[in-house]
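Module 6 notes. Inverse folding takes a fixed backbone as the condition and produces residue identities as the prediction. Think of it as a translation problem where the source language is geometry and the target language is the twenty amino acids. Below is one complete input and output pair. Work through it position by position during the lab.
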């Protein structure tokens, strides 16, 4: 062991056992620094789109959002219509049920949901 290291360790040990403030400082400073870093990142977070220079903004091309939902587009319209129905957005639900019926006019589930909607709006 190096003599400088031994001297430092001896001084640290003496202070550790004799001085409660020294011991408290050794226990508190890592948490204080971590808290300071966390709060500064939280308060001054980068909100500007150009902050990360290597990332390009993702521009989504307009497309029908129901295309990846189901293999049968009528199912997608029916399910979205049900979601609108439960959100009490009945005009949007009616539009989606009608779109589903234009694709598949014999879909019994869509017909049932459309009848429920008509019954509710009487």
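Target side of the pair, the amino acids:
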């Amino acid at each position: 062991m190096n003599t400088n290291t031994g001297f430092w360790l001896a001084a640290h040990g003496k202070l550790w056992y004799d001085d409660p403030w020294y011991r408290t400082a050794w226990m508190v400073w890592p948490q204080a620094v971590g808290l300071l870093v966390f709060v500064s990142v939280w308060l001054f977070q980068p909100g500007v789109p150009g902050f990360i220079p290597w990332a390009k903004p993702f521009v989504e091309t307009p497309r029908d959002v129901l295309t990846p939902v189901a293999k049968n587009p009528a199912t997608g319209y029916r399910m979205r219509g049900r979601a609108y129905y439960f959100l009490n957005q009945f005009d949007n639900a009616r539009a989606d049920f009608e779109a589903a019926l234009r694709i598949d006019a014999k879909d019994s589930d869509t017909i049932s949901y459309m009848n429920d909607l008509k019954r509710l709006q009487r």
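Reference fact for the lab report: The chain has five helices and no strands.
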